[in-house]
Amino acid sequence: MQLIRIRTDDELMWYKEIWDAILEAEDNDNPFIEFAWFYNWWQIVGRKERVELYAIEHEGTIIAFFPFTVSIRWGIRVYTFAGKQIANYTGIVAKQQWLLQAATFIFDELIKKYRHVVFSLHGLLESKASTKILEQYFVERQLRTSIFRVVTPYLAFSEVDFQHHFNQRRKMHGVDRRERKLRNLGSLERRAPSQDELWQMFRLFNRRWAKKIDTSEFTKGKKRDFFERLTMLKGEALQVEVDALVFENQWIGFTYGLCCRGRYVTYALAHEPTFNLFGAGRIVNQETIQRTFAANYRLFDMSIGYEPYKFDWRSSIDFTRHMLASSGSKRTNLLTGFLSLKQRLKEYVKSNQRIVDWKRNSLGHLRFLVKYGKLKDWLEYGQQFVERFVRMKQVELYELTPSEDVSPQQPVGNLFEEMSIQEAMQLDQEEVIALFYKGYTIYKDSFAETNKPAFALHATNWRVDSLRIIEPLPKQTYFLAYDVFKQIDIITAYFRKIKPAQTLWVTASFWQWRKRKRLVQLGYKPISRMKHFKFARFERNRVEKYTESGGDVHSVH
Asked: Residue 38: enclosing H or E segment and its boundaries?
C-alpha cells in the first residue's frame, strides 16, 4: 500500500469521481463524509485549518480517503477528522472490504512517522462499520483508548405504522391544538424557500438564539457562507432541504436538513420567539417529518443530543462516539488523560438537561443583558431572580354590572377597533401574540399614529397569569386585560357602548392602588381577593370572596 498526501483543494478535484464512486458503491447515507461536504468545507471554512488529506493506493487503485485536521498541543500532534465543531458525524471513506487494512496502514504510518501522536476522533456512529474497525485497531495495537458516547435518536419509517405514529405524537404537548389555533388566526403553510429567501432563515436563527447560548455558530462568518453554499448543490448525493413554516407570509420557523441516500439529518432548527406559545418549533419539525415520509426517505435522523422533542418522535436510538487514543508515550498519555477528563465533564453536562437548560437559557439571558440590557431589563431580571426565593402577590378582582355602572357618559364613537394578528406581528412583542393564543380579542386606538394595543377582552375565561389562575366566566360576562390604567374611564365607556348588557370583570394588583381607587369611583365592586406568599420552600395561598359572583377559585399555585 502507498500513502498519498493531497495538499490543495484543486488537487482534490482529481479524486472526486473515485471518492464519489466508493461512497455510492457502499450506499453511504452519512452526508458529512461526502465529497461535496468536505470540498466545500475545505474551500470556505477549512482555509485556516491544518488539513492533512490522505489517499490510500493499493496496486494502482485508490481504496480509501482519510481527511484529517491536525493541531499541536504540548508539542504533540493531535489528529481529528476534518470538520470538528461543524460535522455531526464522521468516518472513513473506503469500501467495507478495505476498511481494516486501510485504517491499520494509515494509523501505523502516522505513529511510525511521529512518535508523539494523539487521535481524537469525534462523530463516530456506532451503527457504522468504520467505528467498529477503528475500535478493533486500537485494541489490537493495545493503545490506550477512551470512548465517550452521546445519544442519537432517529425515526426509521419502516419500524412504525407512520400514520398512527404521527397522529399520536402530534397530540403530545398539545401541538395539534396549538396548530389549530394558529390556523384559525390566519394562513399557515410549509414552504420550500427559494435561494433569495434564505436570509430569512439566518435572521430567524439569530432572533431565536439572541437570548440563548448557541454553540453551533450556524450564522457566524464563514460558516454561514458554507451552509448557504451547500443549498446550491446540484446533482450530488448530498442535498440540503430547507422547510420554512410561514404564517401570513412571515417566517415563524424553519428546519435545515442534510439529505443523503434516504437519510435526512436535522442540522438546524429555529422558530420565531414571539410564537413560543403556539409551539412553532414543534409544528415545523412535524411538518418536515411528514414531508420526508411522503418523499420516501428511510430515516429521519434527529442528530445528536438529549432534547426532549427528539425522544417524542424517535422510533429507536443510536449512539455517536468520541474516541481518544494515544501512541503510548508518557507525554501523549498525559495529554490523553487531560482530554479524557475534559470530555467526561462535557459528556456529563450534555446528558443533564437541567445543566444544559441553565447554560443555554439562564446564562444566555444574562449574557444578553450584559451586552444589550437597559435599566428596565435589569430591574425585571432582578425581580424575577428575587421571586425565586421570596414572592408576595395580591390581586383583587372587580366587577361592573350594567345596573351598577356610574361611569360618566362619554362620546367614544369609534375610538377603538379590533387589532388583527397581522398588525400585532409588526410590534414584535411576545406578550401581545400570547393574547391571541389565549383567546383574547385585542383592541387598538383607531386614531393613534402607530398600532398599539389599548386593551383586550375575553368572552369565556378570566385569568391572572402571575398567579396561574384560569377560571371560566359567568354568562353574560367579559374579562378586561392588558388595559392602560390612564384610559380605564374611556375603556369602560367604550365597553358599555359595544356590550351594553354585559358585565365586565377586571383585576388590579396590590401595587396598582390608583387603579383600584378609580375602579371604585366608576362603580366597580370588589368580588374576590387572591393572595400568594412564598419564602424559600414555604408557600401559602389564600382566596377571599366578597360576593357570590366571585366564583370558585381552584388554580392558585
From this structure: helix 35-44
Based on its alpha-carbon atoms, the radius of gyration of the chain, rounded to whole angstroms, reads 30
Over residues 118-165, the pLDDT tens digits come to 999 999 999 999 999 999 999 998 888 899 999 999 999 999 999 999
**Is there a contact between 53 and 65 (Cβ–Cβ < 8 Å)?**
yes
Beta strands in 287-429 (DSSP E): 299-301, 316-326, 390-400, 416-418
C-alpha dihedral sign at 85, 87, 90, 95? negative
Q: Which residues does 194 contact at the CB level (< 8 Å), separation at least 6?
A: none
Question: In whole angstroms, how far apart are CA 489 and each of 220, 411, 415, 495, 513?
Answer: 51, 12, 13, 10, 16
pTM: 0.88
Tell me if residue 76 falls in helix, strand or coil. strand
* SS3 labels along 209-254: CCCCCCCCCCCCHHHHHHHHHHCCCCCCCEEEEEEEEEECCEEEEE
What DSSP designation does 26 have?
T
Q: How far apart are CA 355 and CA 540, in angstroms?
A: 29
E-strand stretches of 74-144? 76-81, 93-94, 117-125
Cα atoms found within 13 Å of the Cα of residue 288, Cβ hemisphere only: 33
Which of 311-315, 331-335, 402-406, 429-433 comes out lowest in average pLDDT?
A: 402-406
Can you give 488-535 as a three-state secondary structure string?
Answer: HHHHHHHHHHHCCCCEEEEEEECCCHHHHHHHHHCCCEEEEEEEEEEE
Query: Residues with Cβ < 8 Å from 246, sequence gap 6 or more?
Result: 188, 189, 190, 191, 252
Confidence class of residue 549 from pLDDT cuts 50, 70 and 90?
low
Which stretches does DSSP call E strand in 272-359? Answer: 299-301, 316-326
